[in-house]
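Protein modeling request. Please complete all fields; requests missing the sequence field cannot be processed.
Requester role: graduate student
Desired output: 3D structure, token encoding
Chains: 1
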Amino acid sequence: MTLAIGNNRSRSSSIGFRAFTLIELILVMALLMIVLAVSAPSLQGFFKGRNLDSEARRLYSLTTYAQNRAVSEGVPMLVWFDTRQNTYGLRAASSYMQVDPKAVEFTLDRDLRFEIRNAQLMPGVLVSPFVDRAVGNLPTIRFRPDGSIAETSPQSIWLMQGAEDVIAIGLNTNNIRYEILGNPYAPRR
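Delivered output (189 residues):
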């Protein structure tokens, strides 16, 4: 049996493995905390905007779903808005179905609110003459069985977060469907 003589290196150091010291780990963690502390305010604004954007997309999707459901089932569909409770939802007109098993209801995040607007009656003025007794006298978008939108339906719904963060969802130019119109306060290009 022979023994190796000379420089006795461990196998891990000859391959190139090296462990981190506790001080190196603490320095890396401190650096990460500094980066996170600096970027947190800008990330907060990002997530606020995402909340408003996702709620606008959900409302837009609900109007599209209601219109498609009205056509496929041949029953008027109502998208209703309760501005006091910050809720909105979809249900079939009660004159056609007493109980709608596919009815849905959504609640806005506590930082969000909405306003129902009708540009045809008084531009820029809040009004709420769009009611349907089937949903408790609340403002309502009514989709007829042929997919058309009733004249009593609102022109636009404004989702708001704070004073200037607004996304409007309104009728397109030929009054066939609702679409996301964007921020009405933003300068036009």
